[in-house]
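Technical annex B. To support the medicinal chemistry partners, we prepared a structural model of the target in complex with iron/sulfur cluster, based solely on the information shown next.
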Amino acid sequence: MNVCPTAAIRIKYGKATINEAACTDCGMCLKTCPRQAIYVEQDDFNQIFKFSYRIILLPSVFIGQFPEDISEEQIFSELHNLGFHYVMEVDKSTGLLMEETKHYLQQHPRQRPFISSFCPAVVRLIQVRFPSLIGHIVRLKQAMDIAAIYVRKKYIDKGIPEKEIGVFYVTQCAAKIAAIKCPVGEESSPVDGVINMDFIYNKILLSINRHKSRRTDRYRLSGTEGMRPFLCRRGTGDQQPFSHHRKITETDGELYQIQLHLYQ
Ligand code: SF4
């Protein structure tokens, strides 16, 4: 109870309950509860198969968790084996976000000091405890939302019906999970579901260790070259869609989509 920054935990009839309106999803109670009584609701991995086209968004830290002798190609290959058609690192959207943030700061000089909307727990904390600061929050979406909007549109532009496209984000962060399930000030999240980082890391590592002797360039071996252009990989020119972010925002008229709508 004492760790909660918003006093959202209350004891009723000898049982701890969380006041959802006051909770900021910071995860402090989750980390400190000695009995692990508090947990984050996880989506079932098989939910991905409700969609014909499955896209996975990876945070930058994910690849770095693997031992150095495991290549990105091996990781992407395993993700493909698990059922994903497209892998995108969320970092790819940070270039666009930085540009738009610079633009936003110039356009809203009266809003100083600015507060980044990067962490959903901070945004919730301001809404719950410090509503007078809401006007200082930079109203741009998070990198994961921008990546999801971009990649979904990419598939829609290929003629794929929107309802067949599933976008999933890998995370362990309680605040990010809550932001996807109950978006702050938005009707719905552009991300369809969450995949637990521990779960997918262990699945990939186990599979790679089982098949250690197999070649790492499975795409060429397995005859799935058609998948390769869909992969978004580090340091590979046209597979970094956000390197042309200006063009994307202007020609596609998508700029409005990265505005964050916050209620006061
Ligand atoms: S997640 Fe944070 S704000 Fe919510 S009940 Fe736990 S400690 Fe309190």
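Notes passed to the chemistry partners:
Residues 216-256 have pLDDT under 50 and may be disordered.
The pocket of iron/sulfur cluster is lined by residues 3-6, 8-9, 18, 23-29 (CB under 6 Å).
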